[in-house]
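Hi everyone, sorry if this is the wrong subforum. Our group has a chain we'd like a structural model of before ordering constructs, and none of us has done structure prediction before. Sequence below.
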Amino acid sequence: MQSLATGERHRLGRIGAVVALAIATGVVVAPIALASPGSGTSSTILGHRAALSDDVQINEGRIKFKTKDPTDFQMQTITFSPGGYSGWHHHPGIIWVIVESGAVTIYDENCQAIKTVAAGNVFLESGNEPMLVRNEGTTNAVVYNAQVVPAGEQFREEDSPPACTLPS
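Answer:
Right subforum, don't worry. Here is the predicted structure as tokens:
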């Protein structure tokens, strides 16, 4: 997970343009299956699940983006009320998350805070380990995300809560 400087955000915008183009020109392949929203959150899907049947290999400006098989894309916005959290989950693909307002804290499978990400910054989610995102502030936190997963996969997989306890 990394914060992005202004120049890097511009480059991320190029990748975002590829994602948006894929969504705009893709074919809707299935109804959207929404995962449990956790508690104190609301989400809005921005467009429908879209398929990109071609492999992608982009190497531009020191950024690489490559897929080896068909992929599905989706974009959404999530609002976390104060104390709201995502629930324990993981993603089979890669999720780019832009924090639009407020801040969110990311917890790993050991209930350890990995990082707090404030408005104007980006973080990535991927991997098979459970994670949780929580708004520990006193105002709403709003995030936008662009999700890419292998074709036909769920965008989010629910996980059982780990044996550890989150800090209060």
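For your construct planning: The longest strand covers residues 71-85. Residues 6-25 form the longest helix (20 residues).
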